[in-house]
Every structure is written in C-alpha cells, then in structure tokens.
Specification:
single chain, 775 residues, alpha+beta
Length: 775
C-alpha cells in the first residue's frame, strides 16, 4: 500500500479504538477476568477487519501485511482487548493461504464474524517449530476418509471465545491441518488465565473422531501454509508490541512534563530525560526494522526467509516494548506500580505478547539458525561483466550489485591493506582513493550530476557491507562524507565548481575544524576569530585561534571550520563557516596520539591566517545553520553501520578460528549483536533516503549516532573478552594470514562515543528537540 493509504488505515483504526473506549474495556477485562472475549466482535466484523488479510474473493479487504500492521499498531497503542491477532491474524492467514474448499468455507465464516477459529499448533513451551511433534492423527477404521486425533496443544488463543480449533497434527506420512469444532467429543479444554485479562486454553484430544471433511490440507502444502501464517503473525505481533511501547513512552513523557518535584518539572532532570531517550531510540530502531521487514515480506519471500525476518523484527520489537514497559513504570514512580494507572494495562499486555509466539532469546536463536553465517544477500556466481562508471543502479538487482562490487574489490583493492587495525593515513590510501575516483565510485552517496554514483539507500547499504566484509580500510574521507554533501546543498555554484571536482580527484584532502579547547561539545562556545578585512588583493578574513581533535589534519591540505565573526553577538549568532587552504602561511599542526598510540587527532593553530572572502559558505554570521546541517551529515555518517559491521566481521573471524560458536552463551550474544547491526542498517536507510531526497535531516538523526557507537562498543567489548589473553596484546597479530587486532574496535568505539558530540549530548538533543522535555 502507498503511504497515503497506510495513513488512512491507521487513522481509521485509532479513531475506532478511541471511540470504542478500548483502554477502558481492557481495564474491565482485567478487573473481571473470564468475561466474553467475543464481546464487540461484530463491531470488528462491521469494520471489515475480520477480513483484513482475506482476499477480495472471500469478501475480505486484502490489506496485506503492511496495511494490517497499521491496525495492529493502533491496537497496541490502545491495549485493545479484541483477539485480533489470534483470529483475524493467525486464523485468517492460515485459511487464506490454504485455499482449499474447506478452508474457504471457514474463512468466509470468519470474515462474516460468525466464526472465531483458534490456531492450535504449539506442543511444548518455547517451541517455534511449525512441524507437529507428538499430536497425531490416523485413519479412522471403518470410516472412509475419517481420522482419529490424539495429543495435546498448549497456549491456544483465544480461549473460551473460540468457535473451534485449527489443529496441526502429524499424519501417517506428513503434516495435516484439521478443523475441530467446539463441542466435539473427546476434546478436553483447560482454561489458562493470562495476566492481561484474556484467556488461553490448553487442549487434550483423546481419540477425537473427525469426518473426512475435517481435513483441511495435508502434506507440504499444509506445513508451508502453517509456517507462513506463524511467521506473518509474528510480524503483526511485532506491530502491536511497537504500538504498546510507543503508547507507554507517550504516557511517560506527558507525566514527566506535568509532575513537579523540588519546584520544577521532573522532565527537566537529565537522568530521567536520558531514560526516555533510550526508550525512544529502541522504539525508533524497532519501527525502522518493522518497516523494512514489511517491505521485504511484500516481495513474497520463501518460508525460511520469511521466518528469519519475522524472528528478527519480533526480537527487536519485543525487546523495545519490554524496555519501554520497565522504564515507564520506574519513571512514573509509585503510581506506576498501581493498577489505577493505565500504564499497568500496557505493561501486562506487553508481558503476554512477549511470551506468546516466541520470546526475544528464542527469536534471536531462530534468526541465527535460519540465517547461518550470512549477513547479506547470497552471492553465488562470479561477476563476469564490466565495471560501469555510471548506471541505473536502482534497476540492478542487489545480488548483481554485490557481485560486481565484490569482484571489483578482489581485482583492485590492495591485499596488504585488508583489515587494517589503525586509522588509515592518506599515504597508505591515496592509490586506492584514486582507483575509486578513476572508476567514478569514490562518492557512492553523491548525486550523479555532481560526479557521484547516486546509489539508492538499499545499494548504499550493500556497498558499505561489501567493503566492510572485505576488510577495506577507511580512507581520509571528510571531503566525501561531510563538506561535499554540504556544498551540494548550501554552496554557491562557483564553490561547487571549484571544490567538488577536486574532492573527487583527491587533489583536495579535507579535515574538520569544529572543536576547540574548552569548547568541545559546547560548539557555540568557540573562540577562534575571523575578522573581515580588505586590502589591495581584495576582501578576506584574518583568522586567529586554535582547533583541536582535528582528525588526520596532518594529511589534509584543506579544512572547513566554524569561526566567530562577531564577538558582540549572541553565542550562536556571530558564527560563520569558512573553507581554508592549510598551506596558507600562519597555520601550525601538532599531532595528538590516541589511546591506541596512533597520531589520529591534531591541534591546528591559526596566527593571522588570510582566508579569501569567497571561501565563506552561506551568509556572514549565518554559520550556525550551516553547522547544524553539517552536524546532520556527520551524525548520519557516524551512525552508518560501517564500523559495527567491520567489528562484527572481526569478531566472527576470531570466533570461527577458536570455534566459539559451539559455546551457546557466546552464540546467543553474537546473535543479539548481529541483529543490533542489521537493525542499525534499517534505521540508517531511512535517514539516508532523507539525504537523497535533498531534505534537511531532522534532529532525530542523533539516535543513529548513539545506537551505532554503542553497538560498536558492545561488539568491541565482546571481542576483547573472546580474545582472552590476546586482549592484552599490543599491536597487530595474525589470524588466518591477515592482520588482526583484538583491541582496536574497543578503543575505536570508545572514541566514537565522544567525537561528533558525545552520546550524552546527543541524548540531550533528542530529549529537548525531539521529545520536547522541559529544560
């Protein structure tokens, strides 16, 4: 569905749940358990939602998973008591997928609201397998086509409201799906009250005699339909979990804005703000993952791939909702611990949803098992074509694009530069930079009209992944990732013509001059002055001051910097943005060694440095708006999955060499980190699309920097732990014939949480500019 249609579905769902007082009905269900869960079901049928996933031929709405997900997210935001997921989700998905006459008749009854079938598939706690284990059926003696059903099923929803059960069983040769109406002799039902006021059932079938038409499907078709229904249902469950998490965040923000202590709103306390920001970050990453998985599912994935993606998004949305539920109770204080607070309704609903259809750990394990060691699209055949300078990259399949990039790296990238443990210097990377420049691939994200590749977001992610997996070192690239995109958006045509080609060719190597002593994260506190002047040679600025933490300034020949051009103006109003040739007289550069012993950063001193007036970007004293735009580019760059993917690749190399994947504890931790990186890529894609559209990046881009750097740090910490004694070895080691440094990712990630604005500053930005918490 297009965005406008999805928005209309969502607004309709929110309107219904508000008008029907869903939250109050959930409270009544919790205070008076055992009520009729089918109450109000005819209202759902009247909206057509019973058939939201049914085809039009069955009088359904055929919304697809993306449209249905909007309804389920709205249901989560209102803690809706209707058994939507169990019936309109799992039941409808299975029956629609089967397409047999018996299934079609049941689906028609479901769509009309006259039948609430419950899917009975699970036989042991925590099992995610769609293959029946013990529940079996066999031919009924003396009855042509009839069967006898024997076995047990657990956690069947809905409970007492179900009209009957869709039962998966093991036949003589393969899987069988059966319809067992309520009231059938031999069915023993044990009610299971759930914490959110709803009810499940445990079922025991004791020699249940069923007629031939009770068999809805059998063989591979039955098993595939069940696998598809469960996977799609887990995706829809993710949407409901996301909605519940978002509702808890909204309630918490409203509470923090109004509750006062010590004479001020508690939402102004930084510790509480940062807790809210962490809720927001987890939920935003979950939403990005859900959007990506829904888009993939719309392509018609095979069962195994759909199951893997379902586990990925379910693990992410469940973790985010659980984190939101726990944090929101804590931030509400004592009132959050009471049933009187509506928060309790959402807290308990999340507990139920997170325990049914698989928990976080189970889905992490299943994703790892189904995905194997491959984090990317399978690339089976070698690339035999040319390496085009330009192409319609959108029309090229991702597999072909990856094959092309991989072949290019194998043929052109210097082997001795693979898996460098230090930040590469220009002297090391110059030839590779020029190779990419000659190929026209040095600026993958730039528009083609400015000499870039113009890659769409999915190909840009593939590009990053292929380079990181091959161990390609990062060249000095501030010109490509920062000043180039800034000049494309804010530079004059003359500045673009003067600087962009020289960035692409490698003639100009750039560094950034933002931070100053005592004005690191307080960027507006800078004191380096640039005074306008005029002489016989024309208008210019005279720059005096100092910059610090300037990455690889000793390798650069140009710097872009913020300078104060009006000492009497307010802090943010007297700043301008200048471009300067570092070869200009009066500039001194002093390297600073990092924890790793590398001279990665520098101090840069300016003593009466003359900068031409045409090097001013934007308006005089208007540099703060330019600075914010550049910070957006920096944060999306720092939020790229590059570093985490590289570190994860290093961790996988070590784990394979030491056979650590045989350790279930390590395997679980690795699986969780791999999903953190995959879902970072999903969040990054959304912001990359904003950049490609030429729109300004929102303040929420700060969440990328936080998630990326902290994921990078978690990987680095596990790498050192997995390295055991090697975690104390200085310098490079050798692993499988390639250089390897156990400490490098941990030390690098420590810096990543500081530069570009510390993660604490990023959380402050998100708290005030995105969550609108009081100062």
């Amino acid at each position: 569905m297009d965005l406008e249609s999805l928005s209309a579905v969502r607004e309709s769902a929110l309107d219904y749940f508000t008008r029907s007082r869903a939250i109050q009905r959930r409270r009544a269900r919790m205070e008076h358990p055992g009520g009729d869960e089918a109450e109000g079901w005819q209202d759902i049928a009247g909206l057509g939602w019973t058939g939201m996933l049914a085809p039009e031929s069955a009088e359904g709405l055929a919304l697809g998973l993306d449209g249905a997900a909007e309804i389920f997210r709205a249901a989560g935001e209102h803690a809706a008591p209707e058994p939507l997921l169990a019936v309109a989700g799992l039941g409808a998905l299975l029956l629609a997928r089967l397409g047999t006459p018996g299934a079609g008749a049941l689906l028609a009854e479901l769509v009309a609201g006259r039948n609430l079938p419950a899917l009975a598939w699970q036989e042991s706690a925590g099992d995610l397998s769609a293959v029946p284990l013990a529940c079996g059926c066999e031919a009924r003696p003396g009855h042509r086509g009839g069967v006898l059903l024997q076995g047990e099923k657990l956690m069947v929803l809905p409970g007492a409201a179900a009209s009957g059960w869709l039962v998966s069983a093991r036949g003589e040769d393969d899987a069988v799906l059966l319809w067992v109406p309520r009231g059938t002799e031999g069915v023993i039902e044990t009610p299971v009250p759930l914490v959110d006021g709803s009810q499940a059932s445990n079922l025991r079938f004791e020699q249940v005699a069923l007629p031939a038409d009770a068999v809805l499907a059998e063989g591979p078709a039955a098993q595939e339909a069940l696998r598809h229904a469960l996977a799609a249902g887990q995706i829809l469950q993710s949407a409901e979990l996301l909605g519940a998490g978002q509702a808890m965040l909204a309630q918490t923000l409203a509470y923090l804005r109004t509750r006062s202590q010590f004479g001020k709103p508690i939402g102004s306390f930084q510790a509480l703000q940062h807790r809210c920001v962490d809720m927001f970050i987890h939920l935003e990453v979950a939403k990005a993952t859900l959007d990506e998985v829904l888009a993939l599912a719309a392509q018609g994935l095979p069962a195994q791939r759909l199951e893997a993606e379902a586990s990925r998004v379910n693990a992410r949305c469940t973790a985010a909702a659980l984190q939101a539920s726990r944090a929101s109770v804590q931030l509400h204080g004592a009132i959050g611990y009471t049933q009187e607070c509506d928060l309790s309704l959402f807290y308990k609903r999340v507990l139920c949803l997170s325990a049914w259809l698989g928990n976080v750990s189970a889905h992490q394990r299943r994703h790892a098992a189904l995905s194997g060691d491959a984090d990317t699209v399978a690339v089976s055949a070698a690339w035999e074509g040319e390496f085009p300078r330009t192409a319609d990259w959108s029309s090229m399949s991702e597999a072909d694009f990856r094959r092309m990039v991989r072949a290019f790296l194998q043929q052109r990238y210097p082997q001795q530069l693979r898996y460098l443990s230090h930040r590469a210097r220009w002297s090391e990377m110059r030839d590779w930079y020029l190779t990419l420049s000659a190929q026209g691939w040095i600026a993958p994200a730039w528009p083609q009209v400015h000499g870039g590749m113009g890659l769409p977001a999915d190909k840009l992610i593939a590009w990053i992944e292929e380079l990181e997996q091959y161990g390609v070192a990062r060249a000095p690239d501030q010109g490509i990732v920062m000043i180039g995109p800034l000049l494309i958006q804010h530079g004059t045509p003359q500045q673009q013509q003067r600087f962009l080609p020289r960035i692409l060719s490698g003639e100009h190597v750039w560094c950034q001059g933002y931070s100053e002593p005592n004005a690191g994260s307080d960027l507006a506190g800078l004191r380096t002055e640039a005074m306008p002047a005029r002489d016989a040679q024309g208008e210019h600025f005279v720059v005096n001051g100092q910059k610090i933490w300037t990455t690889l300034a000793q390798d650069a020949n140009h710097i872009f910097m913020l300078v104060r051009t009006d000492k009497d103006a307010r802090k943010q109003e007297g700043i301008s943005f200048l471009l300067c040739d570092l070869r200009t007289p009066g500039i001194t550069i002093r390297p600073i060694h990092t924890l790793a012993g590398e001279p990665e950063f520098c101090e840069v001193f300016f003593d009466n440095v003359r900068v031409p007036a045409e090097n001013l970007v934007g308006k005089l004293h208007g540099g703060w708006s330019i600075a914010k735009a550049l910070l957006g580019f920096e944060r999306i760059f720092l939020g790229s999955p590059k570093q985490s993917q590289y570190a994860l690749g290093q961790l996988a190399r070590l784990a394979q060499a030491r056979r650590l994947f045989a350790d279930p504890v390590f395997a679980q931790r690795f699986a969780a980190l791999r999903l953190d990186v995959l879902d970072l890529s999903a969040a990054y894609t959304g912001f990359a699309n904003i950049v490609r559209a030429g729109k300004p990046l929102p303040a929420s881009v700060s969440l990328l920097k936080v998630w990326a750097s902290e994921t990078y740090h978690r990987i680095g910490a596990l790498l050192v732990e997995a390295g055991e004694e090697q975690g104390a070895v200085a310098g490079d080691q050798v692993l499988d014939g390639q250089s390897f440094n156990v400490l490098s990712p941990l030390i690098g990630s420590t810096a990543a949480m500081i530069y570009g604005g510390t993660n604490e500053i990023q959380r402050n930005i998100l708290a005030r500019q995105v969550l609108d918490l009081p100062v």
